[in-house]
Amino acid sequence: MLKLDNIKKFYGHFCALDGLDLSISDGSLFGFVGPNGAGKTTAIKIMTGIIYPDEGSVTLNGMNPEQDGKNYRSMIGYVPDAFGIYNNLKVREYMEFFAACVGIDGMEARKKTEQLLNYVELSDKADFYVEALSRGMKQKLALARALINDPPMLIMDEPTSGLDPRTRYEFKQIVGELSDRGKTIIISSHILSDISELCTDIGIIDQGSLVMSGRLMDVMKLVTAENPIIISMSKKTTQAIRFLKEDASVKSLAIKGNDLMINFAGGAKDEAALLKRMIDAGLPVRSFSREKGSLESMFMQLTGHGEEHTITSYDIAESNS
Amino acid sequence: MISLSPIVKKDIEVRSRSYTLPAMITAANAVLFLIGLMGIFGLVARMRQSFDTLYRSFLTVYTIVALTEFIITLFTAPLFTAASISGERETGTFDLLLTTNLTPAEIVTEKLISAMLSMGMIIMSSFPALLIPLMFGGVGIIDTFGLLILFLPGAFLMLSIGMFTSSICSSVTKSIALSYVIAFILTVGFAVFPLMTRVFSSETGNEFAYLLTLDPFLPVISVLSRQVGEPDFPELIFRGLKLAPDNAFMENTVFISILLQLCAAFGFITLAVMNVMPGRYREKNRKIRER
Hints:
The structure holds two protein chains of two kinds.
Chain A (H helix, E strand, L loop, with lengths): L1 E10 L2 E11 L4 E5 L6 H9 L6 E6 L8 H6 L1 E4 L11 H11 L4 H14 L15 H12 L6 E5 L7 H16 L3 E5 L3 H7 L2 E6 L2 E7 H9 L4 E5 L3 H10 L3 E7 L2 E6 L3 H13 L4 E6 L4 H8 L4 H14 L1
Parallel strand pairs in A: 3-7, 3-8, 5-6, 6-7
Antiparallel strand pairs in A: 1-2, 1-4, 8-9, 10-12, 10-13, 11-12
Chain B lengths: L5 H11 L3 H31 L4 H28 L1 H8 L2 H5 L5 H22 L1 H5 L9 H28 L3 H29 L16 H11 L5 H8 L6 H5 L1 H23 L6 H9 L1
Helix pairs in contact in B: 1-6, 2-3, 2-6, 3-6, 3-8, 3-9, 3-10, 4-8, 6-8, 6-13, 8-9, 8-10, 8-13, 10-13
């Protein structure tokens, strides 16, 4: 288990991480999400042991990067957002160089290189210069390099950004396979659809501290319960708006075409009661359901970007006029 | 078979595919051969006119070629290390090295070794150029080779300066610029400063002259002046600045200077290692926050 305990990191007076607490259990596929400048990359560099925190502790299965340096680092494969490529080196040489850096030499290094290049489908590019590879191929090579010593944990910073849809799909397939093999994988990404497709667990970071973390399904359920109810009317929309405005349990209301979106205080029973009241009042309700939670909407809610509220108030003002 | 460390092996592979090192060696030797040959042709022409044998003048050409070679050595050395860490930071490979089994000290040391190998090639390749003015004798081959060996501490100091600036600068351009500023202060600055203060200060001895012992030129010029039979250079300088160091100092100036240069070089290397340690800014950040 990787555990970050009350991590603080400063750059001069700027606080990049402000008491970050995070636990990532073995075998999970963890999505690490946050807006730009939230502290994701700093947190990732601390997890990999590239930088040490100013305060707090990092442990991986009881090991600490400061005290168990080599052993700690050998447990982690790191794929940075920049590929980390040497010009004038061939793909095979690049792999063998990093193999030597982690203590794998000679025939073993060659064998490992062949295996991994085969795995990421780059074996036909083994004698190409690294700089001649496409962006997607470079990213696959970076992944192969990170796997050279078969670490139990992989940390990837924005691995799919800038990749074409096909390479992104292939990359996700490989990551999924690695996860199935039991590797713990941490992915930081802005592409929330990738995170929601791939990850089993999620952590959302904002302004240097963790806003929410847990199993993706549980977090989504939590957020869905707070989502607006969408009511589709076949007609009598104006009467329905009047009815809902007078209902005490409706906090706010917005209109999108023939749909009414309401922020509603109450559980499933209260929802059923509201629907019954509407039908009793002779309002022709075509559909009545909670909006499904998406990672995007959750991210916007938790990181305080109130785009939804802006639209809502604009729509209400328009409907009143 | 010699087992090379991964960074040294990789750097050799990368450099062998680049035109930079062969171009530098060719350019350096072209300059030295040009100076040497022009000097010799000039002397031969004069000898034909005057019917004098100007053997001592050949030694002057040797001095000029040797000093030019040393200047080239000193001012190309930072180029080999100034990009070593900052360049890796620019390409994003330095973070990857830190995630391997290599410690920051090993990374810096291996980078330095690979730069020293390239620097050594430039220095040693100039040996034939240095021998040209000695065709009529004057200085033995072993002594000439010894002079080249004496270039190494100065080159090592310059390489370590480049390594230090590379560890603190985020870009290669800044690192190269800063390394040249430090190299210039250490060579020209440390020579000019005592002389300037001598001009503007009182008649008494000028202790700033001891800064010269850190100047890489001191041991080279000192040995070179002895080789060509000129007055002892440190004696000339220190007595000229009205200083009276004891005899032990005067007799061992070359040794003391080399020792100080090596100490300074190890100081710069230590600072470079500290600057690439994962916890490098922790103490600095704490002090800033406390203020």
